[in-house]
Amino acid sequence: MRRSTGDGFSVFRIRDFRAYLAARALASLSSLMLGVAVGWHVYDLTGSAFALGMVGLSQFLPALLLSLPGGLAADRFERRTILLLCFSLEIVVALLLVCVSLFAGVSAGWIFPIVALTGVGQAFLGPAGQSLLPFLVPKKDFSRAVAWNSSTFQIATIAGPAVGGLLYAFGPACVYAVSAGCYAVSVFLVSRIRTKLRVAAAAKPGFEGLLSGLHFVVSRPTILGAISLDLFAVLFGGATALLPIYARDILHVGPWGLGLLRSAPAVGAAAVAFLLAHRPLAKKAGARMFACVVIFGLMTIVFGVSRSFPVSLAALAVLGAADMVSVVVRQTLVQINTPDENRGRVSAVNSIFVGASNQLGEFESGVTAAWLGAVPAAVLGGIGTLVVVSIWIFLFPSLRRADKLEAGPAVVKPEEPVSV
User: Looking at CB atoms within 10 Å, which of 20, 349, 382, 391 has the fewest?
Assistant: First the structure.
């Protein structure tokens, strides 16, 4: 592996990292195009906030059930092969959605089991993809690589919903077909990665090996606090499932406006990720993480009460910028404090928490909106995020004291295990 020169672009001199980054960008672009198209498609067919929530639940349940086996697979098998299989499954999902959209009179009920296959893929893709990155770059450049990885994802997040919204003018089948093509290119790029992606020691089979990642996370309060903070903050504060309602019924901006709303958080997040790639957090990472989650909750409330399209876009952009700090801190803490032989299973636990915050958060928002309306659901979600931060500051003092994001024991101050 080529040695890093320490500048912000040094990781791009590594061929396999470039291939991985490009594959992830295209896969993310495809996934987000699918997300905006499925959301609008389901809302067009049903007009129901509850149905929008069901989209998130349909993805979350298989991911919840299969993430721990997915982590075990990442620690026992070649991770590149897992990525190839998962991206291939996403091609099948996109093509099935093409078929559904071309048949007149098809109900939204057909869409839910198809997007559930996405949850199956994510259960294996998340651990394999997250645990792959540390093998591609020098350890001292890992925080920078995480920032570039996040930055690339956010750029795709900006483009994906916007492109999906524009392509939706030609019908959902057009969006689904383009997504299938992007996934196909991702398959090719992953096949070009040459780094050996096997761990030094194979994971233990059986129930003990399956749960070892969970035991590892629970025994380290800093890691547990970081990923659980993300879980509950986004679970309550995430208003993604409500964006079709805001776009059509509150802001009156249509599918194109929905694409911009979905892209707005990524604009702020990409700017912060680019900054962190060049200027990594030097100190007080934990305290800054908490401050940014507070900003996330406040901007959720501002978005919830806004009736102005520009104000809503600005609130979502600031929200995304704040969330990106949390993402970089969490991912770096998890990966640089986890041994290689356990990395897949720990990443699986992280994926469960992240998936719960996203897909289950969409379900929670949809159910709350069905009961109370979209605006009260968004505002209550932001308030819930602020409450979570207040509790977590006292529950996880080691996370609050987390200082530098560097490999080795200097990452955080010594901590005592917790029991649950």
Answer: 391
Q: E-strand spans in 1-139?
A: none
| Nearest Cα to Cα of residue 380 among 301, 290, 298 | 301
Q: List phi, psi (to 5°) of 49.
A: -65, -35
Split at pLDDT 50, 70, 90, the class of 83 is confident
* C-beta of residue 1 within 8 angstroms of C-beta of residue 14: yes
pLDDT digits (tens, 9 = 90+) for 326-381: 777 777 777 666 766 666 667 667 766 666 566 666 666 777 777 888 888 888 88
Cα 156 off chain centre by = 12
Q: Which amino acid is at 41?
A: H
List pLDDT tens digits, range 262-314. Answer: 778 878 887 887 787 777 666 777 788 888 889 998 999 999 899 899 999 99
3-class SS shares of the chain: helix, strand, coil, % to 5:
80, 0, 20
Altogether, the residues listed in the chain come to a count of: 420
pTM exceeds 0.85: no
Which structural domains are found in the chain, ordered by start?
14-194+204-400 (1.20.1250.20)
- CB-CB contact of 101 with 41 (8 Å): yes
Cα–Cα distance for residue pair 303/299, rounded to 1 Å: 6
Region for residue 6 given its phi and psi (left: phi exceeds 0; alpha: psi -120 to 50; beta: otherwise): left
Residue that has been written with the tokens 């199956």 in this structure? 120
Contact in structure between 40 and 111 (CB atoms under 8 Å): no
Tokens 């290689």 -> residue: 340
CA pair distance 271, 276, nearest whole angstrom: 9
Tokens of 309: 């399209």
